[in-house]
């Protein structure tokens, strides 16, 4: 008899597990076949201990229920076919016949948001580790079977996926990308400085290495993707309908491929959501799932004990064990954040429910580390019953830890006890946990409710910096300023090439603008903030305090627009306003001769669709063109 996919999977379990599960499945099936009109036999009580211990942890058992038709109404013939299939296999095993199905390794295609493979298991029952005093039934209405199955498969897939981080060849490949010596040297220096500042410092070398790794990963290695730039014109794109994955996409775990569509070129740029960390070492881009996936591998490659963190409200990060501090540290590579566990609940405003940690040795429910509002969190934990979650995690852990030494098991238990104490201890947010999310576009953060209030409008209308002549510039009767978007710094050429960092430092006024870096296309520019219809920036020059007036002014400014985007450059002096093009060519303004001050201003507007903010840009240039000048002002002066 041909085996169904679910029965085939069930057969891959040990003989004992198969027989136990088959006995229960056959009981369910026979009850219905004997009394097909009895409603009580057509539903299963999830909270039943026999069901939760004999079926849910067994690979393929719940799938058999769905094939039988427990998910929705189905013909009795289908149930009878699966029942006969199970009975045949069971009878053959009980007679001592050969087992026709042997366990086989199956290719895994993880999802983009969370890693994927198949079953596994971990620590002790305490690994569910919720505050014991607070355990209450999650909901009066029992969760449905499909919710249990979905949650079980999430546990199973993540727990199996983390084993890929233990591959020695993959770890070596990751180390080939990491500037280990450079990071170690920086970490040693920071450790020395810390001990000089505080002789009682309890931090270790690994703690500082972790901080350096986080900084390198965020600043130099990985990049965030909202929408890729158009592969033809390098202009903005919008995320359109999904595309079908190719065989190669599936090979690297990309079951989903985003279509980033350029409305100008009518061209699609594919963005496969790879979930294999080996592939991510090459692509070096993605969203939180890809970031956490690749960063966790990098931690393991450097010998740091790390675990992958899955959050049911759609975020992922890493935890790293600090030997010197004897505790697990929260590490978010997207945010370059370390040891800020309340960041999500307090800073981002997330409504947490389930936060689970997956490592090579165990699964742990670490929700309570990330919340200071435990009663609220408990009220939201309604997907599965707490007793089932506790048992299922314990089952996973017991299976995974069978091969561990007694010493290692004892170590894990002691760590878990420390975590439990931490979980039930009152928490107060630290200053670094109060801010909103930084990674991702504003639209992405607003849609997920993860912004700071300040993000709604990065406007500074209060007057800021004013260029006035220094003593040297007064003597030379010259003021010469250049801005490099690539370096993000001003060079005051006329004042011994004084360097002033950051585009905003020398701005007179700025409203709804920011500096955008496209790591994927290696481009940089100043543009409007997302959600804003108009952006403004200006620079002011005042020579009155020096007793000087303008003899001549020349300005070189560059801007670029896409679709219906617009940039308007103008020069203000007294009551007069003069517009000029931002075409990268030097413009001379004789009309300013005799004036004592002026303002250079740019207004950005227009554009189409969700990416309209990106359709008007100032100083767009390549990150590789480090010597290119994006903006230059040359003023010759004379006595007033």
Task: Explain this structure.
With 640 residues, the protein is an alpha+beta fold. Helix content is 32%, strand content 24%. It has 18 helices and 27 strands. Strands 14, 15, 16, 18, 19, 21, 24, 26 and 27 form a 9-stranded antiparallel beta sheet that branches. Strand 14 (478-484) and strand 15 form a beta hairpin. Helix 2 packs antiparallel against helix 5. The longest helix is centred in the N-terminal third of the chain and has 20 residues, at 15-34. The protein is elongated.
Largest sheet: 9 strands, antiparallel
Q: What would you call the shape?
A: elongated
Poorly predicted runs: 98-126, 128-140, 441-448, 452-462
Instruction: Give the beta-strand count.
Output: 27
Into which percent range does the helicity of residues fall?
25-40%
Arithmetic mean pLDDT: 83
First-to-last CA distance: 103 Å
Radius of gyration: 31 Å
Q: Note the total helix count.
A: 18
Structural class: alpha+beta
Question: How large a portion of the residues is in β-strands, by DSSP E?
Answer: 15-25%
């Amino acid at each position: 008899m041909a085996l169904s996919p679910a029965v085939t999977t069930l057969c891959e379990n040990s003989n004992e597990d198969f027989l136990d599960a088959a006995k229960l499945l056959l009981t369910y099936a026979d009850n219905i076949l004997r009394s097909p009109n009895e409603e009580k036999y057509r539903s299963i009580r999830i909270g039943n201990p026999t069901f939760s211990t004999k079926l849910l942890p067994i690979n393929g058992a719940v799938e058999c229920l769905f094939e039988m038709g427990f998910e929705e109404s189905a013909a009795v013939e289908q149930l009878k076919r699966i029942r006969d299939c199970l009975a045949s296999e069971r009878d053959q095993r009980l007679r001592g016949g050969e087992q026709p199905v042997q366990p086989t390794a199956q290719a895994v295609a993880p999802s983009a948001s969370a890693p994927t493979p198949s079953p596994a298991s971990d620590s002790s029952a305490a690994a569910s580790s919720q505050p014991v005093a607070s355990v209450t039934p999650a909901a009066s209405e029992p969760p449905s079977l499909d919710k249990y199955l979905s949650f079980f498969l999430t546990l199973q897939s993540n727990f199996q996926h983390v084993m890929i981080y233990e591959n020695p060849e993959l770890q070596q490949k990751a180390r080939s990308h990491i500037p280990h010596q450079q990071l170690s040297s920086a970490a040693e220096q920071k450790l020395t400085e810390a001990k000089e500042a505080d002789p009682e410092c309890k931090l270790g070398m690994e703690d500082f290495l972790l901080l350096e790794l986080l900084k390198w990963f965020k600043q130099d290695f990985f990049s965030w993707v909202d929408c890729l730039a158009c592969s033809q014109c390098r202009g903005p794109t919008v995320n359109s309908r999904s595309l079908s994955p190719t065989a190669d996409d599936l090979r690297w775990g990309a079951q989903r491929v985003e279509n980033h569509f350029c409305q100008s070129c009518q061209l699609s740029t594919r963005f496969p959501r790879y979930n294999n960390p080996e592939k991510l070492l090459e692509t070096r881009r993605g969203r939180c799932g890809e970031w956490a996936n690749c960063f966790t591998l990098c931690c393991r490659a450097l010998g740091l004990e790390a675990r992958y963190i899955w959050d049911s409200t759609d975020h992922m990060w890493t935890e790293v064990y600090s030997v010197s501090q004897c505790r697990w540290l929260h590490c978010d590579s997207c945010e370059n954040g370390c040891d800020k566990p309340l960041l999500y609940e307090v800073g981002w405003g997330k409504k947490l429910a389930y936060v689970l940690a997956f490592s090579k040795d165990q699964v742990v429910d670490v929700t309570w580390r990330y919340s200071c509002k435990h009663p609220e969190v408990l009220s939201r934990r309604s997907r599965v019953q707490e007793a089932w979650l506790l048992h299922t995690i314990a089952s996973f852990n017991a299976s995974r830890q069978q091969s561990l030494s007694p010493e290692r098991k004892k170590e894990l238990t002691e760590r878990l006890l420390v975590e439990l104490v931490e979980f039930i201890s009152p928490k107060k947010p630290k200053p670094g946990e109060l801010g909103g999310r930084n990674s991702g576009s504003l639209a992405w953060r607003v849609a997920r409710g993860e912004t700071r209030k300040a993000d709604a409008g990065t406007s500074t209308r209060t007057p800021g910096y004013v260029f006035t002549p220094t003593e040297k510039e007064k003597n030379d009767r010259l003021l010469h300023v250049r801005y490099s978007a690539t370096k993000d710094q001003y060079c005051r050429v006329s004042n011994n090439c004084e360097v002033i960092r950051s585009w905003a430092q020398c701005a007179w006024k700025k409203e709804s603008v920011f500096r955008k870096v496209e790591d994927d296309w290696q481009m940089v520019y100043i543009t409007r903030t997302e959600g804003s219809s108009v952006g403004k920036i200006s620079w002011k020059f005042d020579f009155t305090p020096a007793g000087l007036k303008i003899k001549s002014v020349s300005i070189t400014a560059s801007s670029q627009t896409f679709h219906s985007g617009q940039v308007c450059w103008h020069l203000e002096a007294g009551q007069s306003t003069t517009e000029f093009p931002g075409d990268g060519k030097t413009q001379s303004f004789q009309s300013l001769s005799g004036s004592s001050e002026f303002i250079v201003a740019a207004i950005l507007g227009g554009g189409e669709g969700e990416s309209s903010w990106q359709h008007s840009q100032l100083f767009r240039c390549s990150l590789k063109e480090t010597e290119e000048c994006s903006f230059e002002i040359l003023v010759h002066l004379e006595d007033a």
